[in-house]
Amino acid sequence: RTPMAAIRGYADLLTLGTLGELNSEQKEALNVIRRNIDRLDNLIKDILDISRLESGTLSIQPTKCDLLEIITEVLATIRFTAESKNIVIETNVDNNLPPIYADRDRIKQVLINLLGNAIKFSDSGSKIILSAKRDKNNVIIAVKDFGRGIPKNKQKKIFEPFYQVDSGMDRKFGGVGLGLAITRGIVEAHDGKITVESQVGKGSTFFVKLPLKPSFIKSEKRFSIFRDEKALPEISLRPSHSELEKLIDEMAGNAKK
Questions:
Q1: Which tens digit of pLDDT belongs to each residue from 16-33?
Q2: Which pLDDT belongs to residue 34?
Q3: Are residues 29 and 136 in the same domain?
Q4: How many domains does the chain have?
């Protein structure tokens, strides 16, 4: 990530005019560079996370969290992305939700991933419903969209690294297929579970079930995500040759935008 920091630093210097004034065409080119720096930076973060999942070194730092507060922060973070497609995010959150013991930043990452996907796969002018409620000793969070939906035979595969529903050469949506794999890993690291219900042409609902008090709070605060070999069963986190080609194509395509 050190080269990325250097690239970003020089891009900032150019933006500020420290190295000389830029004309309008140069400023537009610089905007393209900055957008793709952000994309590449996010990709690096995802690859690091998936590597930590594979090696069992992803750290979870649980604290007592107000889920409603986390949701409010996430909605503020993702607001611009939704507004860019004229998508409304409706909320149905129990105001009396009890606190949960979780890694605040990682739960925010889960919600941003799920809402980001819902926005990406929804048509402009659509809506998304985010709900959260208590269910006995758990909290159930649901993200519902009214997009294209996921075929039944692909619903289990979407949580595998590098898997994409629209994997053909003419696929419409970007991404390299790491977000849901990381989301699943984080949820399971909290002794939770993530599932999906979907119907083609009608949309998808992702459910995240988190225990109010996961078993790990009584032990160390930093631990390996793979407490046993069954935590993330029989999936390969190493991309195949074709998957690497998709990754390179995705990065090359982004560089043109």
A1: 888 888 888 988 888 888
A2: 85
A3: no
A4: 2
Q: Is residue 183 over pLDDT 50?
A: yes
Q: Are residues 45 and 88 in the same domain?
A: no
pTM, entire model: 0.73
Tell me how far apart the alpha carbons of residues 117 and 175 are, in angstroms, rounded to a whole number.
10
Going by their DSSP bridges, the two strands 88-93 and 127-135 should be labelled as parallel
Question: Do 33 and 102 fall into the same domain?
Answer: no
Cα torsion through 92, 133, 224, 222, rounded to 10: 90
